[in-house]
Amino acid sequence: HFENIDPLTIEGAPGATTILSGEADITNWTNDPERPGVLVADLSGIADLGEVAQRTNRIDLYCDGQRQQLARWPNKGFTTAGKALGATDVGDTWIHVHGTREGVFEYTDERIAQWGNEKDAYLHGYWYWDWAEECQHLDKVDATNKTITLNKPYHHYGYRDGLRYYGLNLLCELDEASEYYIDREARKIYWKPCDTYQKGSSRTTLSVFNEAAAISLFNCRHVT
User: Which of 34, 69, 73, 96 lies most in the core, judged by the most C-beta atoms within 10 Å?
Assistant: First the structure.
């Protein structure tokens, strides 16, 4: 953080490689006794575990500098919702597709019923318009009525019939190499190692930098 400096020069040490880093090494991986092929590590030494899946204040897992994938389904692409079931209609739009203000809608794949047991899941979707995506926290899954309810605040434009989305931070969907899941309550991370991981030589880190930028400048001039 720099403020009211004129001029300001920031430079690396001569001959050295300069890196701006906000990360913590994870070195305490052990085999998860309940999930073959999955590693687990304790994160109690990290004060802020962020928002997991949001654009800001988020944390990411890296292996040898390669970003890993938060456990998701579908593993690629999107799944499609059924009808929007909120109480308040968004009204007619130029595409004439029914939508509701509240984040309640039908799901169309039976496997989503198991998401009801997840305690910190997110859904990333194009909720009404295909140019207005957002990540939202899952509230509950009703397996009887095959519905999903999201936590407030709801998306600004509402939710349409047939919207497309995918789930994130789902322990039950930890099924592909490089995927990981963060349990903020128990302060643990679960990871299905990527194909390039080498025990004892690979470096695994968790980004813990939760500010808007690595360097903040206020009222500074002539910055180099």
Answer: 73
